[in-house]
Amino acid sequence: MTALLTALGAAAAFIAATSGGAPTAAAASTTLIDAQIVEVYVFLLAAFTGFQIITKVPPLLHTPLMAATNAISAISLVASIVIAGAERPLYINIMGAVAVAAATINVVGGFVITDRMLKMFKKTEAPK
Questions:
Q1: Which residues contact 70 (CB under 8 A, 6 or more apart)?
Q2: From residue 78, how far is each of 75, 81, 92, 100 by CA, in Å?
Q3: How confident is the model at residue 9, as a pLDDT?
């Protein structure tokens, strides 16, 4: 929790520091690099937090949480499509395309697995 609050504080301080005045070309380049560093920092914190949460989920709650995770993955799919099509440097667009592929695989695979798990709970009729 402390790490998350630290990340939010760092992001808020970064936004406050970079929000003043019209930037020059050199400052805009530096600001883009600084923004990318903050984005990587937030991604790493999100990955660490997600790992810590997922490892503590009991098996009984796995199926309902899997369905909710599929919805979150669909949101990340939309965000990765936005990033892939944005007016940014080529390497960011390539990473966005990779994110689109990974999120698509995650959404489709998640729904297939959830459907398979839910079929296990359906009652079958006894043979006559």
A1: 107, 110, 111, 114
A2: 5, 5, 16, 8
A3: 56
Using alpha carbons, select from 6, 3, 27, 5 the residue that is nearest to residue 17: 27
> CA-to-CA distance for 29 and 95, rounded, in angstroms?
19
Give the Cα separation of 117 and 74 in Å (integer).
Answer: 20
Distant-in-sequence, close-in-space partners of 57: CB < 8 Å, separation ≥ 6: 65
Q: Which tokens hold the place of 90?
A: 């080529």
User: Among all chains, which residue has been given the structure tokens 């959830």?
Assistant: 114
In the chain, where the domains are located: 1-56, 58-122
Contact 86, 92 (CB under 8 A): yes
Maximum alpha-carbon separation in the chain: 81
SS3 assignment, position 48:
helix
pTM (2 d.p.) = 0.50
pLDDT in tens, 75-120: 888 888 988 888 888 888 898 899 999 989 988 888 888 788 778 7
